[in-house]
Write a structure and sequence with these properties.
Strand order of the largest sheet: 2-1-3-4-5
Distance between the termini: 30 Å
Strand content: under 5%
Number of strands: 5
């Protein structure tokens, strides 16, 4: 695109501003009204307002916004930067949405330049309508240049997104580093570690930026160079303490080396750097619980509940986690108080009812009332079946941690068979989730049967390999129909990430060879969506999605956003 084309495009985008839908985020109604009037002067009329984070999340779930204008200081101790990270990590706003932060802090620019997820721009108060317009048009222009990358990512067509990155790198040198960042991350998502490493090294030759160092560190970790990867992450944290995912990454390196105490300390540093980020507080609690640091877990889980008040990102698990730790500490009264709060807040929610029954049964067992505890466990087992059926019908997620807690309550009240059945299913469906497997192992330890736990996990592992091998061997021998049948059986029997992905890929491969079948394609898409709910960033899921897009395109079928 020539400079003249760019100038013409800027003019077009300036005129298109009037058609944009805008969300203003500010604690103070007069400030929201003032900004609304400024936008009205620019011809922007589709303007919504939000006074707190909970309202923002409600609004972005209900509407697709082109622009979000957020004040830096928010209502609940969060800031506009943390809100951006929550919205992006939870995929609540699309990549094409412009996010501007408004601040009176002149030093904000130094902070944001090092952040993992920087806003598209920021405005220092006070500012004029002309300055606002100029910044918005500049940000919209950048989104316009990168729009093909965003579109292909949202479709799940990652190879096409990489091709779009290459076009930007060649044609728009001003946005080369943005495109290189996307390209490196996309290659990593597709499991192309060596190519991703090459891209991040190329960036670092021209510009030393935290995201490129972290991209390189991730590639190094994935090929087993843990020491080098850890050193790079430490460098990033020294240079940019606000780059929060570097803490998570470093903790994962420590975990891979079996150094759980170091992992917990790093996650605590992340929680201190971003005290209102509930995702990181949860991680601290989970790791502390695995380290048997019950006081640390209690503090972290308590903060999650305090700081997510009024947020739609809050979950029943937040209460169940804290209740569980309090029971382990022997503080039955405090556990019951948390359970009462949960029942009040989640009135009518079946998972909350289930969590309350499980926790109370563990409290009664600790108090020496096994008969009462057993009665509640029987109710909980019946309710768990309802929860699973309801979630399946609505395509919702069922808490796997809660299922493990139910198994714990079953063991505690002598219901060995029911406990084994639950544990076997959870372990099989989540064998790739080390945190959940760690939770299962800890329950076996608490109930005095560590060897039985190891035996069950080994048995489940063998069953998964055998089930998978049957379908894979059929595919290798050219029996696509047989492979699809076997892998569908495996996915229905054990809907773990691996089986869901394998069944989806087998179906799409069959459709590629034999022609499109809407019913079979719908089943594969369902498997793909369920796998994505388990781990959106998994290279296996990305690869299956890529195959779906390729086959759908071949038959002229429209692909929904991922």
């Amino acid at each position: 695109m020539s400079a003249l084309d760019n100038d013409e495009m800027l003019l077009v985008l300036q005129q298109s501003l009037t058609k944009k839908r805008v969300l203003i985020v500010d604690r103070h109604p007069p400030a929201r009204e003032s900004l609304r009037l400024m936008l009205a002067a620019l011809g922007v009329t589709a303007v919504h307002g939000a006074g707190n984070s909970a309202e923002v999340i409600r609004q972005v779930k209900a509407n697709r916004f082109d622009i979000v204008l957020s004040d830096f200081v928010l209502d609940d101790g969060r800031d506009g930067q943390q809100l951006l990270e929550e919205l992006r990590h939870a995929h609540l706003i699309p990549l094409g949405t412009v996010y501007l932060i408004i601040t009176s802090e002149r030093g904000y620019t130094n902070v944001v330049s090092m952040a993992e997820l920087a806003p598209d721009d920021y405005l220092i108060k006070p500012f004029t309508a002309d300055q606002l317009q100029a910044r918005l048009v500049k940000a919209i222009f950048k989104k316009h240049v990168l729009r093909r990358i965003y579109e292909q990512i949202e479709r799940g067509a990652l190879q096409e997104a990489i091709a779009a990155c290459d076009r930007v790198i060649q044609q728009q040198p001003a946005y080369m580093y943005d495109a290189l960042r996307f390209k490196g991350e996309l290659l990593h998502t597709l499991g192309k570690t060596a190519e991703a490493e090459e891209v991040f090294r190329r960036v670092l030759e021209g510009r030393v930026v935290p995201w490129a160092k972290m991209g390189l560190a991730t590639a190094l970790r994935d090929r087993g160079a843990l020491d080098e990867a850890g050193e790079l992450a430490e460098q990033v944290l020294e240079e940019a303490p606000e780059f929060l995912s570097a803490y998570d990454f470093l903790a994962s390196v420590h975990e891979a080396k079996g150094r759980l105490v170091d992992a917990q300390q790093v996650l605590q540093r992340a929680a201190d750097a971003s005290p209102h980020n509930t995702i990181r507080q949860r991680l601290v609690g989970d790791t502390a619980a695995r380290n048997k640091d019950l006081l640390g877990a209690e503090k972290a889980y308590g903060k999650v509940i305090d700081r997510s008040r009024g947020s739609s990102l809050r979950t029943v698990d937040d209460f169940a986690n804290l209740s569980r730790v309090l029971v382990e500490k022997g503080d039955v009264a405090a556990s019951r108080k948390i359970t009462a709060d949960m029942k009040r807040e989640w009135r009518g929610d079946k998972q909350a009812e289930l969590a309350a029954l499980v926790t109370e049964s563990l409290c009664l067992d600790m108090e020496g009332s096994p008969d009462k505890a057993q009665g509640l466990v029987e109710q909980a087992i019946a309710l768990q079946q309802e929860v699973v059926a309801e979630a399946s019908a609505k395509g919702k997620h069922v808490s796997q941690r809660l299922a493990v807690d139910l198994a714990h309550a079953c063991y505690a009240t002598g219901k060995q068979e029911a406990a084994q059945k639950i544990m076997r299913q959870v372990a099989a469906e989540n064998h790739e989730d080390p945190h959940l497997i760690g939770h299962i192992t800890s329950v076996f330890e608490k109930t005095g049967q560590p060897d039985a736990g190891k035996a069950l996990l080994d048995q489940v592992g063998k069953q998964i390999i055998e089930l998978n091998n049957k379908g894979v061997m059929a595919a290798r021998n050219g029996d696509l129909e047989g492979a699809v049948e076997l892998l569908i059986q495996a996915a229905e029997q054990v809907p773990n990430l691996q089986f869901l992905v394998n069944a989806a890929k087998a179906i799409f491969t069959l459709l590629d060879k034999k022609g499109w079948d809407s019913e079979l394609a719908a089943r594969a898409q369902d498997y793909l969506q369920r796998a994505q709910r388990k781990d959106r960033k998994s290279p296996k899921v990305a690869s299956a999605r890529e195959l779906y897009v390729t086959v759908a395109n071949k038959y002229g079928i429209e692909v929904d956003a991922a």
